[in-house]
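Handoff note, outgoing to incoming analyst
You'll be picking up this chain. Sequence as last confirmed:
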Amino acid sequence: MVEPPAARAAVPHAPPPRVSLIVPTWNEGKWLPTLLDALRAQTVPPSEIVVADSGSSDETADVARSAGAIVTEGDRRGPGEGRNRGARVASGEILVFIDADCVPPRNLIESVCLALADPTVVGGATGFVPADGRAIERLLFRLANGYQRAMTLWGLPHNAGYCFFFRKEAFERLRGIREDMLLNETHDLAMRSRALGRFVILPIAVETSMRRFRAYGYFRTVLKEYIASTILYYATGRTPPDVFRPAPAR
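Most recent structure output, in case you need it:
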């Protein structure tokens, strides 16, 4: 892996870190090729790509293997379990998690390495924008990005979960993602990471599909799956999966 020049300057003579890119999947054969193409075009390529598949019945696993990714298979128990399973397989010092229907900018991994050149930083997240977004969708995402950045600056780090990263050592010390939560589990991880160091928001954004919003409507997706679940998390420290169980949109 090629080390970013700025990272070399910040940490002279340090060997380049190994970066593992982890993608949780369930029937993502439609979206995965675009993501894998974007990862191959990175200014700093990942050391490895780990696809944590959860019982896909489509060509997801075949697409991943044909692109040279490591595939770890398991039961369908939610993206949190998939991310944890991928992290256990990963050999990198840095773990970057990204959803299969996202498209990262070419400097994603370079930006992560630059952020982690600061030893006080243990993890962080990117911004997110709607792919082919309508005006209302761009507005919703602009507000959500502002909320994520403001809360993080105020000491209550928020992680929407589209694309985020951690030092592997920190991820393991935090015991990974809580698998008893299907919503707010990545936000919970960011909040817990305050015990170890700083969680930052990178000045870049990934594109993500609007399939959930368009399949189930903005009212249900925004008010119930995001706002209501977040309020409950702040009040109780959990979001029960029997109440908040987002339906997959394919």
